[in-house]
Amino acid sequence: MMSQAFYTGITGIRATDQAINVISDNLANTATIGYRGYNTEFSNLFERAVSTGAGNSSVDSSIGVGTRVGAIVMDESKGVYNLTESSTDMAILGDGWFGIQGYGDTVYTRDGGFTFDSNRDLVTRDGYFVLGTLGNNITDGVLTNQLTEIPLGDVNAQEKLSFPKELIFPPIATSEVSISGNLSLTDNIQTISSPVITSTGQVNNLRIQYTKSAVQVPPGVQWDILATVEDRNTEEVYSTQTGVVSFDNLGALTSNTLTSVDNQGSSVAIDMGTGYTGLISIDAPQSAISVADGLTDGELLGYDTNKNGEVIATFTNGQQSNVGTIAIYHFANDRGLERASGAKFIQSVNSGDPFFSQDENGNNIIGTDLTNQKLEGSNVRVEQGLTDIIIMQRTFDANSKSITTADQMLQKALNMDA
Predict the structure, then answer these.
(1) Does the reported pTM lie above 0.85?
(2) Based on the number of CB atoms within 10 Å of its own CB, is 68 exposed (0-12), middle (13-18) or buried (19 or more)?
């Protein structure tokens, strides 16, 4: 029986030693971003039945013969969220993991300390590539499609979020100019102008002159129109169109024969409205407002991320486009993930394969809430760790005492025999 006490004490020391190692590692990583602490769970080794002579006793007559570490399990509680100055820093508010990759298999982490490197790749602080779905809307350094949303692709088809250093937002030619205001009833020539953009991004000037028609057909008033598209700098004329616009006796527009102009190969519709909704002609001072669509080309200012996990490209013409979506992976059993190092984990048989959350239509979604300009700190509580290590120290001492006590009893038994 004394040998059993030796053995039991030794198993307690071994198990406690492992627990202290786990707690020490937790405390050492209280400042590690995205770190997940571990808890030690103990279990009994086995029981030894004791014969008491009471065959019909309802009491379980057995003695445990030691302990062992049953499992070292991940603490799945959330860490403290800390504000940062970088808009590319991200934190997962719910469940899920970022996927990152070096030169091997995918690694999973809660550390969202991301940045764009010199090659415009979205990477972690230690150089791992962040995985996600690309918008495939960039060809040869030109944005081919302005996207507001990029759904996640298949979970096994995620790729490195890599983007070109130089990117152009192509020009969008002006397709329509809307004109509103008032043509006064004086005989003076009145002019309304508007910038118009060609398909190559050149900005020309559309100048529309209104001259009161020599022959007036009452009731109302008619104006002859001369529309000229010219270079803004050299005043070189590219095209000229004419027409007539008519108003009734109350100044409401009734007809317009100038419906479009040619802007170096691009047709631009001219919308002067109808009735009182656009251009009118009453006995009041001239006023005019012209609104044209279209965009000049823009150069890349930079890439950024937002709280939806989207990578946004911003251009000098004020436009933005989604070019990628950061993937958020989920597992059936997060505790089954194996720690690779620090805050990095790899999948295992126990964790199961990664998957994406889906909406009611079966589309892949990130399935959690994100926030940027924040990082999730370690979920290790220092005060809890210090308390646990004191408890384990006392447990270690108690097991040591059981060994020394058994040793003293054995020595006395040997001395009695002598």
Answers:
(1) no
(2) middle
